[in-house]
Amino acid sequence: MEEKPCRQCGVIFTAQKGRPFCSRGCYYQTLRERPKKEGVKYRMVTRPGHPIAPPGGVLPLSRVTLYDKIRPGPHSCNWCEREVTWEAERYSPEALLADHLNHDPSDDRPENLVAACNACNAHRRKDGDAPPIGESEKTVIRGGRKTRAVELFCQICANPFLVNPAEFNTGRGRTCSRSCARRLPRRS
């Protein structure tokens, strides 16, 4: 134990285990004074009684703008065409979300907003959006989502198999199975 000043209030105290604060109150005060991280800046509005407002009446301006643009009722997701509906609770899988096309959450112009399901809104790429998957395209299921696939041939048994292009680009996807992967020569 050593005598040292508190990092928050400057009071000299006996520190145990290298603690920099004299009390929990000083520690929590430091947390309150810490600058907030820059995060997503959605503009919020208060609209009690609005058809899609939660009980508190506060909701993102983007949802109000999109609601005014496309009106109530079920709509299809702009990306996967799943049917979504307006709900006050935005976190259910069938909830309609306002997706910003240019990825700028402060740009709430009607032409920048489209209807999206929760999954597509969360997983949409920021570097550009892939076109919808066609009926004749080869696909694989990864993480419960259908994604595009390319057909490759196993480096051990030469059997064809499907792989997600992202997996192949990271060095995986050279074999059709784990048993073939075990027979690959080790990289040095």
Structure notes:
The structure is a single chain. The protein has 188 residues and is an alpha+beta fold. It folds into three domains: 2-33; 44-123, no CATH class; 139-182, no CATH class. The protein has five helices and twelve strands. The chain has helices at 24-33, 61-70, 118-123, 165-169, 178-182; strands at residues 2-5, 12-15, 44-46, 58-60, 75-76, 83-84, 97-100, 113-116, 139-142, 145-148, 150-153, 160-163. The strands form six sheets. It has a two-stranded antiparallel ribbon. Strand 9 and strand 10 (145-148) form a beta hairpin. The longest helix has 10 residues, at 24-33. It is flat.
Whole-angstrom Rg: 26 Å
Residues in β-strands, percent: 15-25%
- What is the β-strand count? 12
Strands of the biggest beta sheet: in what spatial order? 1-2
Q: Main beta sheet: strand number and arrangement?
A: 2 strands, antiparallel
Helix coverage percent: 10-25%
| Pattern of helices and strands | EEHEEHEEEEHEEEEHH
Report mean pLDDT, rounded to a whole number: 81
Unreliable spans: none
Number of domains in the coordinates?
A: 3
**Separate helix tally:** 5
Q: What would you call the structural class?
A: alpha+beta
Overall shape: flat
Head-to-tail CA distance between termini: 51 Å
